[in-house]
Design goal:
The protein is an all-alpha fold and 134 residues long. It is built from 5 helices and no strands.
Length: 134
């Protein structure tokens, strides 16, 4: 599978995950559980790469949204981020994580696709966060 195939599959995964993501986004308990699963997975990944390094910002945005501290993010962006996180914690990946080195390629591709679709909203959130700490 080449990089274009992985990218196209990642975009398909995001599109297919929107329904479940919308459901999870609306359920505080499910959101807490998802974020905990993502944080646990990150602890097991020795070096996740540039795209997976964006996960803490995505998690922070979702937490600030849940706490109603930052409510400017469009719902479609929130749903895409949740869909990407749901894929990340799903043990039934395209490439299982047990394959050291290549097992995170599909996860990184899904996160990269999510970032591509939500970049301006993630940047707006980061600007808000930076202004808040100044």
């Amino acid at each position: 599978m080449n990089t274009d195939d992985i990218r196209m599959q990642a975009e398909k995964i995001l599109a297919n995950g929107k329904g479940k993501a919308a459901e999870v986004l609306e359920d505080g308990g499910k959101m807490d559980q998802l974020l905990e699963q993502v944080e646990n997975k990150l602890e097991t990944v020795p070096k996740a790469g540039a795209y997976l390094a964006e996960l803490p910002r995505m998690i922070s945005l979702l937490k600030d949204h849940i706490q109603k501290d930052y409510t400017e993010t469009p719902k479609k962006t929130l749903i895409l981020i949740v869909a990407a996180l749901l894929y990340l914690v799903n043990p039934k990946d395209i490439i299982p994580d047990k394959y050291i080195g290549i097992g995170l390629l599909d996860d990184a591709a899904v996160i990269a696709a999510c970032i591509a679709f939500t970049k301006s909203d993630l940047e707006a959130y980061e600007a808000w966060k930076d202004a808040k700490t100044e």
